[in-house]
Design goal:
The protein is of the alpha+beta class and 560 residues long. It has four domains: 233 residues, Up-down Bundle (Rhopdopsin 7-helix transmembrane proteins), CATH 1.20.1070; 92 residues, PAS domain (Beta-Lactamase, 2-Layer Sandwich); 67 residues; 145 residues, Histidine kinase-like ATPase, C-terminal domain (Heat Shock Protein 90). The strands form four sheets. The chain has a five-stranded antiparallel β-sheet. Helix 2 packs antiparallel against helix 9 and helix 7 packs antiparallel against helix 8. The two termini are 75 Å apart.
Amino acid sequence: MWRLYLAVVFFAAVFGTALSLYTLLHQETPGAGPLALLLLGAAMWATTDGLSLATFGASETLFWAKLGLAITAVVPLAWLLTAVEYTGYDRVLTSRHLLGLLVEPLVFTGLVWTTGSHGLVWSNLQPTAIGPYTTVVATRGLAYWGHVVYSYGLIALGALLLVRVILRANELYRTQSTALLVAIVIPLVANTAALFGLSPDGIDMTSIAFVASGTVITAAILRRQLLSVAAGTREIGRDEIVDQLDDAVFILDSNGVVNDCNPAGATLVDETTDRVVGQSLVDLLPALSSVFPIEDIPDNQIVTIERSGSVRTYDCRLSPLDSPFGERSGTIVSVRDVTEQTRREQQLDVLNRLLRHNIRNEMNVVRGQAELLRESIETESQHSRVDRIVETVDTVTERSNKVGTLTRAFEDEPASIDLEAVLRDAIGAVTAKYPAATIALDGDPDHCVEGAASLGVAFEELLHNAVEHNDSDHPQVTVTVTAAPPSGADVTVRISDNGPGINRQERAVIERGRETALEHGSGIGLWLVAWIVRTYGGTLSFAEADVGTTVVVQLPKSEP
């Protein structure tokens, strides 16, 4: 039995060393460096345990026992640093903190090697035979028990950090943190049993327990990406995102007092972060008094705040801050400057009104005057000029109508509509206007898609373009509808014509979704179609065709 025990101890040493070296290969991952130190310390601990038993001389046995006890000062600190780095708290750990944590291990190590002169660690050392081996039995002193309390305190602190991740993080990080907790609990239980005489004399199962601990860590590495995805990176990333936000963010307690804020929040109230914390947000920003006190978290509210002699508009959003047990513990308030956005919306509203109403009415006046002018002139050349004026006026009026249609499209609420009915209505309207055109509906149009009435306008515009710009005496257009397999989510509508095709530059502009000074579309029709289709979650593209143009519209399928 003793030989088996010794073999297992040395196996723990080899296994721990190998695992620590493997962990060092991933030292860029938060927590990997201290974890490697933890595993190496445990392996060295197991080695000294084995050598202290396998050595026959009392002095040699005592040497290895002291060395093992000195090594134990490293393991709890390595565990705490592993937890601190893994959870992202190393960003608040300074060199002064680290030096403070090293004081006890260094002092204890010195006391271990000089214990013969003061007995603070061990006293009454007696070599004792255990089976074929020799061990040292001693009375534990005050420094020994002080070291035990300190070590267990470090382990408990690291465990609390992991428990915090378990309560707050998603499934992956919960599994990783649980694995690390189990990995330290196993040897902790074994060590406790040895300290309080619950294991046989001369037997310390802590080293062997690290074999099981290493197995848990190995499983976490191989199955749960322990050394490639760390919670600390996530926590640091979240903090950096908040710090870099242009939006002001305040964390309030249940009384509306600021517990924390990001730099943008401190800038908004013209204070430093330290001076903001502890003050009421309403006192700092009286404009938010209409938002507080809050019983139920409301939707976002628009507030105005005067800053540097100018009045700016802000979008204020409030989100509940719940504790892990589901209780309301505070509120997160984010304040976004929407002054420029509000101004642009106002400008667009004015331009839209001018384009939809004023320009259209004025163009009607111009058209009426042109028709009156036609009656007072006699030459054919003058008639052609008047016709050109009327044609231009009709084009401007048509574009104004399209802008109005586009505006109404953005106001429509998406719903489930019958695609076949929409397509047949659009085909009927275009056929009535162009009797010479042939428009066929093929495929499987019996589907419901996400959209609204404006979707019919988009298809009518595509069919109108296919016929109007067709240089054939008998324009032919084919509308083909195909659906994805039952598991798919899209319905595809292909509109193909036998015309001259759309200019490649204009197609590229529409597909890219923006114009430049050198590349721009010639009209608003295709923009109208693209915006309407994309409003309802669809896509617009152009397929290569030998003859004419093929426009491809994909729309999300919906339940009737």
